[in-house]
Specification:
The chain is of the alpha/beta class. It has one domain (about 5-295): 3-Layer(aba) Sandwich (Rossmann fold). The chain has nine helices and eight strands. The protein has helices at about 5-20, 25-40, 90-100, 120-135, 150-165, 190, 200-210, 245-255, 280-295; strands at about 45-55, 60-65, 75-80, 105-110, 145-150, 170-175, 235-240, 260-265.
Length: about 300
């Protein structure tokens, strides 16, 4: 049963949904970046930041302070934002939380955004960030991928790209409310239409068109259509009341059908990327993520 705090927060979020649905891409970007920036500032005393220069996008290393660190292992974090929003200010927010909760270094990559940079820009930038970690001395078996929403789909698309290129695959993947089917094939778009306090199918369809019009069934856009043979073990977390619930379920099903280890958690009463909110269910999920990455 959802906690009282999460029930109250969900009700508050629902009140602002009509406003969020009227956002343009520019206002969506500003809103999201401010949220990430606030999260990063709240954890500023617990982490340190080191910018990393890439030709096409911004990135930074986030390092936890004052705790034992496994310097051999690292997380590559790919943010959400429907492929149209999220700069390095936003990416630093959840990356900071990951660093604090796992005790690991986190490379936050703010990949290029649509519509200015449509597919395959995000996949190319994710690949470049991964290659950078390899070039910096990290073994692939010590690199874990974490992403939420669009970033949750992108980490699986990145692994499919790595397979295409014959490159070593990472240690593990954690997808939080992954947007993994841009063809909108999940029944949860209908079933959860009135339950989801944040997402709008109409808005998502516009973002999908901006990112990858005509490429929706490409596995590097919608990884549910990919070949998952030999993929790393995965943890997928989503809420039962979000439009993308079935994206998570379908992705987990495809992974398991390929014989890949995958744990799926659908948290009752929760909404899209609930793990990013300050509620008891998020605390539990973050502990689960830390334990999964440690194992």
């Amino acid at each position: 049963m959802p906690s009282l705090l999460s029930v109250l927060m969900r009700a508050q979020i629902r009140l602002v949904k009509p406003i969020l649905n009227r956002f343009t891409i520019q206002t969506e970007r500003a809103f999201q970046d401010n949220l990430g920036d606030m999260e990063a500032k709240s954890l500023a005393s617990k982490v340190s930041y080191e910018p990393v220069d890439f030709e096409n996008f911004e990135a930074c290393f986030v390092s936890p302070k004052g705790m034992p660190q496994d310097k051999d292992r690292v997380i590559l974090y790919l943010h959400g934002g429907a492929y149209v929003a999220g700069n390095i200010a936003y990416a630093r927010g959840f990356a900071s939380l990951l660093a604090v909760d796992t005790g690991l270094f986190v490379l936050a990559a703010a990949y290029r955004l649509a519509p200015e940079n449509p597919f395959p820009a995000a996949v190319e930038d994710a690949l470049r960030a991964y290659q950078y970690l390899i070039e910096s001395g990290y073994s692939a078996k010590n690199i874990s991928l974490v992403g939420e929403s669009a970033g949750g789909g992108l980490i699986f698309a990145l692994c499919l790209k790595l397979k295409q290129e014959g490159l070593p695959l990472p240690r593990a993947l954690v997808g939080i409310s992954p947007w993994s089917d841009l063809t909108f094939g999940g029944e949860s778009y209908k079933k959860n239409k009135k339950k989801d306090p944040t997402l709008s199918e109409q808005a998502l369809r516009g973002y999908a068109k901006a990112y990858a019009a005509g490429q929706e069934k490409n596995p590097l856009v919608s990884p549910v259509f990919g070949d998952f043979d030999g993929m790393p073990r995965s943890l997928i977390i989503a809420g039962s009341c979000e439009l993308l619930t079935d994206d998570a379920k379908m992705l987990a099903q495809r992974l398991k059908q390929a014989g890949t280890e995958c744990e799926l958690i659908i948290e009752e009463g929760m909404w899209h990327v609930y793990v990013l909110f300050k509620i008891p269910e998020a605390t539990k999920a973050l502990k689960k993520i830390a334990a999964f990455l440690e194992s």
